[in-house]
């Protein structure tokens, strides 16, 4: 519990009035001082109860990369039957999120940015819930014991594709599902105003009395196999560069594989494969 | 959506008004003008978002006001300058920007100003303003904490409802605790800073001399002399004894202290117990019902003629208990010659009348003759247009024939003494209004009265009220008698009386008395009284119903608590905050591999799945298992539990 400046002023005022009441014997001052003390006691009780029976969960909303701020969802539940929770500030590391009012028996989720220092499975920093409710004289806080671990990917370091034998090797071209002009024909559709004129298939249009366009896939870039040993720098720098490239290449819908010291992950695409590669990188060299 | 800031401002203005209201009659016009200016400037500034009085300027003005206070204040004149300074600071703060710090200062200043008003007035209205102040300030301070946390917070109606429900707990709880703390907070016997308390205005005291003719008109003060809590008494018994005047010097009756003993012959049928709450007085005489036997709760000195002198400061209200008998008589022991003492100079008319009375054979006949003379003279009771002469008694009896109680009593007693009957004057009060609601008599200063005590043939002092011999006695004395007051007046006075009795007069003595009373009640509980069982029988069903409900509810809930404890132990063993709800008891037992967990699941399952209640023995065993599991420091591999339970994200363990 931390005393605020306003709290100090209130306590000094109460003491002064108490001193005046005792020395004057003025019962009206006694009434006032009793009210002030009563108010302090009730607000203390409410403040203490305000932090009880609350449960917080942390749910990752985005990928978490070491040393970079990432978004998590804080789920705060009020398990009390009658008393709402007010002005609950959930703090993880340096990130803070306020829950102004949480009704009894209710749960709310709010996003929060957290930064974790290293890759691999990381225990979250302690979660502190703080509140100045009901009066901003004391700030009460409680540490929630949350033995929760999250997987943190390596911090990406900007890198270019290394040139070398076997690295960045083009295995084969594959088609992406995105529309393009150099892949296989995927469909024939009616012309719409968003289509360029050059996409109109004139022969087919002549047959159907309306404009027809050909839709084709885009021909993807060739698959790549990234070898960790082909990158310069220390192990962490190499892992960082690899992470950067995996992330970038998947954004370009390229098929990527990974060659580690004693393990090879064949090139593939899709979010699950991306997660698989990033997980391998995150846990590389960790027990 | 309603913003917090707007509500905070309204609360701050209202709290300021409530703090100032009890002080308004005491503030000079220029301070009132400043306050009005502060309110107007502040309100306009709030509307425009631009304040005429900047923070730096406000600080400068506040310092100037403080310097003014230092130049005005002194030990003798501290309260008024201090209150004016507080009002000036409030006016400045009202006129400036309403930042969180300034809002807090406004709430605190409003509270201090209300507290300071108790240095000027002890009126019952203070309680009303205090309750309002608590309501507004507590609400304001809670709103302020929201405002400090996030100035842009806005709430929906359901959220406001939630907040207000909880907010009500604060003032309600504070008021309840206020009552408790008020009773128990320590008090001192003699306050050191008494000079800061409100000084009673125009204190009236019982004069220790009676001089008829000293004033031409008797002004009515309308002030309260004292209140007496007691049963309703016969109207003729309402003579409140204050002082006995036994020596006549010229026209002046005085009190001369002599060691002459009297013995009170009591009549227990007329004994009553009274608690008297006296207003501040200028004298030290304690008024009691005629005649007092015993007095308590105050240091005093009681004389044999029934006069009680308090050994205390009378600048505050005082309360004391009295045991008195209104039909008792006092026998004079020893000589009575000094009750016959008269000055030498009297006119022939007076002496002739006295001689005529003296010719009667005994005291009773002499008194009877004097009564007849008073009736013959057609004397009238009046408090106005009274003749001021050198011989007021003679003028009253033979010429003007107008006067008030002092004229009647003084002339009556003089003639008795001249006729050889020992006599003396008694000063006090007559009558009183009985308040049915409060169960007490209210006696005003206007009921001040003087009567005569004359000796009868058996040596007893008897009360004679010569004012009753006036031709207009019925009407004149009716106002002093037990008159009826309206219900509204009675209610208002009962409130005032209780305020005074329970709040203003509450002191160390009453604290000690309350503790003794409490201890006494606790001790009396130990003494078993079979008769009280009958009374209890009525309340028994009322107690039993909720008790039964609580018992069954407890029985239901204790099993739920047991399961919750068990799951908590297992969660701790797996270093988890909470177990997934999908994991049942048997699944937990399998995953943990612990025989105790298996036993727990089997015991509980055997009961629940067979549709019967868990027996007391089973319940105790389940409790024992949890206790043993805690001792075991069980450790369960997280990986066993998490893949099953945590479905949030595959990356979270």
From TrEMBL, chain A:
Ranges annotated as biased composition (Basic and acidic residues): 172-187
Q: Which domain of life is it from?
A: Bacteria
Q: Where is this region: Disordered?
A: 164-187
User: Transmembrane segments in this chain: where?
Assistant: 30-47
Q: Can you say what this protein is called?
A: Uncharacterized conserved protein, DUF58 family, contains vWF domain
Task: Give UniProt keywords alphabetically.
Answer: Membrane, Transmembrane, Transmembrane helix
From TrEMBL, chain B:
Source organism superkingdom? Bacteria
Any one Pfam family here would be: Transglut_core
Q: Which UniProt keywords apply?
A: Hydrolase, Membrane, Protease, Transmembrane, Transmembrane helix
Q: Which SUPFAM superfamilies match?
A: Cysteine proteinases
Record InterPro entries: Bact_TGase-like, Papain-like_cys_pep_sf, TgpA_N, Transglutaminase-like
Q: Which residues cross the membrane?
A: 23-44, 51-69, 75-96, 103-120, 126-150, 162-185
Transglutaminase-like domain location, by residue?
397-468
Gene Ontology terms, MF aspect:
peptidase activity
Its BP terms in the Gene Ontology are:
proteolysis
Instruction: Please give the PANTHER family that the UniProt record associates with this protein.
Output: PROTEIN-GLUTAMINE GAMMA-GLUTAMYLTRANSFERASE (PTHR42736:SF1)
Q: What is this protein called?
A: Transglutaminase-like enzyme, putative cysteine protease
* Higher taxonomy: Bacteria, Pseudomonadati, Thermodesulfobacteriota, Desulfuromonadia, Desulfuromonadales
